[in-house]
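Quick one - inputs below.
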Amino acid sequence: MTSTRTLHLAAELAPGSGRADPGPETAGRTVALARIAEAAGLDFVTHDDSYARPGLDALATLARVAPETRSVGLVPTVHTTHTEPFHVQAAVATLDWVSRGRAGWGIAVSPTGAEARLFGRRPAPPVAELWQEAGEVAEVSRKLWDSWEDDAEIRDVATGRFVDRRKLHHVDFQGATFSVKGPSIVPRPPQGNPVTVVDATRPAARDTAAHHADVALVRASSAEEAAALRAELHRAARAHGRDPGQLRVLLSLTVDLDAYEGGPGALAELIAGWHGGAAVDGFHLVPAVPERDLERFAAGTVTRLRERGLFRTAYEGSTLRDHLGLARPVSQYATTGAGS
Amino acid sequence: MSTSEGGRKQIRLAAHFPGVNSTTVWADPRSGSQIDFSSFEHLARTAERGLFDFFFLAEGLRLREHAGRIHDLDVVGRPESITVLNALAAVTDRLGLAATVNATFNEPYDLARRLASLDHLSAGRAAWNVVTSSDAFTGENFRRGGYLDRADRYTRAAEFLATARELWDSWSPDGAPRPFAHSGPQFRIGGEFTVPRSPQGHPVVIQAGDSPEGREFAASSADVVFTRHSTPEAGREFYADVKGRLARYGRAPGDLKIMPGVTYVLGDTDADAHERAAGIRRQQVSPQNAILALEQIWGRDLSGYDPDGPLPAIDPDPDSALVQGRVRVADPVAVARRWRALSEAKGLSIRQTVIESSGRQSFVGSPATVAAALAEHVATDAADGFILVPHLTPGGLDEFVDRVVPLLQERGVFRTDYSGTTLRSHLGLPEPVWKG
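Output:
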């Protein structure tokens, strides 16, 4: 490797808009695509989820993929507006368990009246409030993942105790629109905290990304614009008391490799150039047609980046945090020692 | 519909992942992780090797508490059911995959979508065990929070299930999405469902209530009833009662399978098995668990009592709030009186009394004895089959599959291969009629 900064690559797997309806073939299709991404050494795959067009539940789909892959990170989109934060965090933690430490989640909100009518629980609030709530869901999720300390399970036959209850914590979270008592029902997941991804393209999502995301996705039409967005996210992260070194900024590129001028080779040039210039930490490929474009991306683009020593030729770690160079966090309750 | 092969009524079998209670023995050196995926994979693969109808996961939404503190004596911590089952769909081919999911703390659109997704991702093997909850204790983890009146639980569950079925029916069988609209006392929703009609049409619906309302709900709407009536007499009474309610809903007796949850202990001989069973009961009731069991009846702090000493002379507190997150004993004063009488008659200590009073395992004996008893149970209409609850994770089902299943097959009362691919086909349940 000649580069000192690791290049991170990810790809979206959901069918492009207007594609065939989902059905029983979803499992086989998604497994095949995830394996292409894994053979190419990608950090993770994302799978979008929408209440507005046909598609299976994304977290379910990637849970189905988990046992048929070994290394690649799995990041489904998860909506926070009409769902229960307690269920959401349990499902993400469980994805981390079944994938042995490869889970993340891409936070999404549901701003439309049509989505609100599907649930019938409340009208859709303004989008700024939805992103504030999404931030609270991210915060309570971290608390719940931390609510079991790593060594809470003791199996102490002498005292008859299965767990040390001093290492299980009520989270007593009070948000603007919900509260959660805790602790979680799921023991602390393998990564401690699964990876939180926020698409920061829309300004309304940007502060939530800076505050809570491990990976922020941005869109830009020039390296300068991307660098400015990354700097803005770093500044905001610092303002929230975070170390910007723990935030990865990936540029989302919607690519139709059939129409892309110069093809996969030119895309490799662009990636190498922007990454080398420190505009971004990596790229999130959104293929127009995953079945066609992902294989070309792997064979054409990734191969060239590897030849130039810019991208890993094998996974070095086993968890998504390992791939991203993010530390496994210590439970926020671990040092307090306070009883539940 | 094939409920019989060669004229013999066929046994349905399901495997319950060991629970988070004292039935599950964790102090045994063979006890493995309750949370690693490998444990789920082992049990599911074993159940599929045994040609079981389905694998069953229970649900917990709040850790149990005792005297205001998190209960620490039993196995605790479990994954979110539907996510684990989607992963298990990748490592099994035919086994049904049943998730317990609460109708009180979910919304129909989201849950119907997750269940239909599981049915697609498993190619027709999904089941939903519909449960309800009314306690504010659990509600503290959820947006809707608070207390649901007991009488409203089945009202909500019934409308929830009906709404889910409207969503599952909203796509035509040839793959055209159509808008839905539901308007009822519990839910007013409308729009378009994102998931095409799933391979089973509707995932299999399991129901576990035993009250008159629960039995009626099962008769009207469920495909499988998970009961606790594991003795032949109680089983036959329940079976006749619930099957008798089906005609009112235009359903045939075979449309609803009755499956008690049962425990079992095997040995080379009956005597061996009974000895092992007694040893397991001692493991299940540790000295600390004996005091806890007593406190659950008495509703008082009894931590000062010696588990090897006599029972308390004081009476239970009927209004106690000591225990949270588990089912309350209906008449604690009567139970306490019974336990005292037992202790005095046999000269038993607290721990011995709890061991003696705690339920015996349902089926104990050599493989031949257990196979005969299971077959008899089903042949005499005390059940259609069983949900087996092993006491060890993850190896607790191995011996049953290796030693009992072949004997059931020899008797001609259990399949020797899967004949279909969906859970409905295993259970001999009809395809739901599309109500477009």
